[in-house]
């Protein structure tokens, strides 16, 4: 039997000022005014459709967290964010301790709205800094400068949010080890409760993919990670996920629900969702990608709906669960996939033999070696 896990909501805002050359997300450069009211109306109608389709308006499954991502959600005025969150609350109950995160650029206009977003209901802001060095920001297509990034972090401290995150990348074009560690040192000095520190990867369908920049070599990337990780630990941050570091008790609850193979509704252009049902089904959904199609009232919001096959569930479970460094309860595999442990006996045995994981009677734990060779770990579950 499958026990439905906690339920989250992802809301996608597709517009940004300009498309960054490394970005493969569903984002669209702003041309003229954003149809804010029309989009908020569509988001709530999209949610209404999902609630009817999947029977979700119930006190038994209140929302655990909300994440408003993009694009650049902070291009949407605070009064529309309030209208959106109020509308969601009217449709699905919130947990008393719900975490509501919104991504934001550190640009002057967006940062000036932080307090208004908090009043609108946002409890946590994720600030897309990426680098504090102007030459790197220009190369990444970012429209803010170093001082704006610093001021945005200071403002986030001042306005009484429950938490905030700084997004920081390393392994940037022509970046030296000292450059990368200098960025990280500056981020640590700003004392965010949470830091997402991750390596730039070149993705298909991006400008960097068609015109690849010169990136640091593997030896430099390893030195950046090793020295940076030590800096973070010494500053009191705990690595709880492959690229997630936080002060104690400030982990991102929304991301934790993803990685624990929890459920989430996805509304907005190109948003993805995953829903589990007591009858054993696991359904993945995607919404219409382009704003013009999404806002066309003659079309449904749903673009695709697929059932996750039993044979694919072990890989899907572990590709999420083994991103986390916390022990994985064995019972969680059964509760979240509706599969017996017998089906993964061989891949677990191979992982143990290779030293990728350790196990107790109740848990699996990814080892230091397993973290380094995570793709090899996950491949074992494709061989079932």
From TrEMBL:
Superkingdom classification of source: Bacteria
GO annotation, biological process: porphyrin-containing compound biosynthetic process
Principal cellular location given in the protein's record: cytoplasm
A Pfam family hit: Radical_SAM
GO cellular-component term (any): cytoplasm
Location in or out of the cell: Cytoplasm
Summary of the function given for this chain in its UniProt record: Probably acts as a heme chaperone, transferring heme to an unknown acceptor. Binds one molecule of heme per monomer, possibly covalently. Binds 1 [4Fe-4S] cluster. The cluster is coordinated with 3 cysteines and an exchangeable S-adenosyl-L-methionine.
Family the entry assigns: Belongs to the anaerobic coproporphyrinogen-III oxidase family. HemW subfamily.
Protein name per Swiss-Prot or TrEMBL: Heme chaperone HemW
Organism: Vibrio mediterranei
Name of the gene encoding the protein in the UniProt record: hemW
């Amino acid at each position: 039997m499958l026990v439905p896990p906690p339920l989250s909501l992802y809301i996608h805002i597709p517009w940004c000022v300009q498309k960054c050359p490394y970005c493969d997300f569903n984002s669209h450069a702003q041309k003229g005014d954003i149809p804010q009211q029309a989009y908020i109306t569509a988001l709530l109608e999209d949610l209404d459709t999902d609630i009817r389709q999947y029977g979700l308006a119930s006190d038994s499954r209140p929302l655990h967290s909300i994440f408003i991502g993009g694009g650049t959600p902070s291009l949407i005025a605070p009064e529309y964010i309030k209208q959106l969150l109020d509308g969601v609350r009217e449709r699905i109950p919130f947990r008393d301790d719900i975490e509501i995160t919104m991504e934001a650029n550190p640009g002057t206009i967006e940062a000036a709205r932080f307090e208004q977003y908090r009043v609108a209901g946002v409890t946590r802001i994720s600030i897309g800094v990426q680098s504090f060095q102007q030459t790197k920001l220009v190369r990444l297509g970012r429209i803010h400068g170093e001082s704006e990034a610093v001021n945005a972090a200071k403002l986030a401290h001042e306005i009484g949010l429950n938490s905030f995150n700084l997004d920081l990348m390393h392994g940037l074009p022509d970046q030296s080890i000292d450059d990368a560690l200098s960025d990280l040192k500056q981020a640590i000095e700003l004392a965010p409760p949470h830091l997402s520190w991750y390596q730039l990867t070149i993705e298909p369908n991006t400008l960097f993919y068609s015109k690849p920049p010169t990136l640091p070599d593997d030896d430099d990337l390893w030195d950046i990670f090793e020295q940076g990780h030590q800096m973070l630990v010494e500053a009191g941050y705990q690595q709880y996920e492959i690229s997630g570091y936080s002060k104690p008790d400030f982990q991102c609850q929304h991301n934790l629900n993803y990685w624990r193979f929890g459920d989430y509704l996805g509304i907005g252009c190109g948003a993805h969702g995953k829903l589990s049902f007591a009858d054993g089904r696991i359904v993945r959904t995607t919404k219409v990608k382009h704003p013009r199609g999404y806002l066309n009232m003659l079309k449904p919001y749903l673009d695709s709906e697929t059932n996750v096959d039993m044979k694919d569930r072990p890989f899907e479970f572990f590709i999420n669960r083994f991103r986390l460094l916390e022990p994985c309860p064995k019972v969680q595999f059964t509760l979240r996939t509706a599969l017996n442990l017998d089906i993964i006996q061989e891949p677990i045995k191979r992982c143990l033999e290779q030293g990728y994981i350790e196990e107790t009677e109740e848990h699996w734990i990814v080892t230091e070696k397993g973290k380094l060779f995570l793709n090899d770990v996950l491949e074992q579950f494709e061989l079932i």
